[in-house]
Every structure is written in C-alpha cells, then in structure tokens.
Amino acid sequence: MEESSSSSSHYFSIFTNYPLLSAVLAFTMAQFIKFFTTWYKEKRWDLKRLVGSGGMPSSHSATVTALAMAVGLQEGFGGSLFAMAFILTSIVMYDATGVRLHAGRQAEVLNQIVYELPSEHPLAESRPLRELLGHTPPQVIVGGILGTATAVVGYLVNLTAK
User: Fold this and answer.
1) Which residues cross the membrane (predicted)?
2) What is the pLDDT of residue 150?
C-alpha cells in the first residue's frame, strides 16, 4: 500500500518542478504580453495572439531561456543538464530569427503574388499563408530577458519559501 502512495506523490511532483514551471510561466506571460501589445498597436483584441507564434516578445525564446536558466540555477551551470538546455535555447533563438523569420517574409511575398493574380487563375482563391512566423532580434532578446527574469524570480521565491 505504501508503494502506491509514493507512486501517487511521484506523479504530483510535476507541479513542483521548478524548471518546468518557470518555462510554462514564461511562455504564458509572453503570450499575454503579445495579446496586449497587439491591442496597443492595432487597437483591436486578437485572441489568436494568445496562442500564435511571432510578435513581441518571443514566447519560444522566453520558454527555453527560462528552462535553461532554471536548470542552471537548480542543478548548476557546469553540468550536462544545463549544457543541453543551453544548446536547445541557442538553437531555438537562432531559428526564430533565421529560418522562421525568413519563411514569414517569403509568405508575405507569396501572398501578395496570389492577391494580384486574375480571379480566373486556379490559385486566386487559395488560402493565404501565415506570415507571422518568426521574430526580429529585439523580439528574441526581450523574450530571453523575460525568460531569465522569470527563472530568477522563481528561484528567489523558492529560496525564501524554504
């Protein structure tokens, strides 16, 4: 009977996993910030911004930066876990400003070409491609700052709770 009790508490330990909670919180905060920055810039509420990619700040960067920083703070910055988290963070942030940003810019050009096609063309009625895919360097940097701040604040709160 004791084994099932410890097994049950083992499953609930996910709710005290500091790196996971830091990453999820950073992602959530970034998405909410995007929602409000869209309203500020465009004077309209866009619920898609709560789950969509692209925009200020980068939620992908905030998530992986919070994860890496939390792992480093909890496990140490010299270990293998931090090394893996750091490499993952570097790849995600590079990809956000590279491949994904340029794919979004190509989508803009392709959408404009399709828009200018005559109505009888078979592609004239095709659904537009998503254009907001990647991030500018400032969006990625702000996402990284948000992720770092989230992990550090979480770490300090965790320290004071002990």
Assistant:
1) 20-40, 76-94, 140-161
2) 97
Segments forming the whole domain that contains residue 86: 19-30+58-161
d(C-alpha 157, C-alpha 160), whole Å = 5
How far apart, in whole angstroms, are the C-alpha atoms of residue 81 and residue 41? 39
| Whole-number Å distance between alpha carbons of 11 and 123 | 51
- Amino acid symbol at 25: L
Classify residue 16 by its DSSP letter: G
| Least confident among 4-13, 39-48, 91-100 | 4-13
42 inside domain: no
| Residue recorded with tokens 């830091």 | 22
Q: Has this prediction a pTM greater than 0.85? A: no
- Is 77 part of any domain? yes
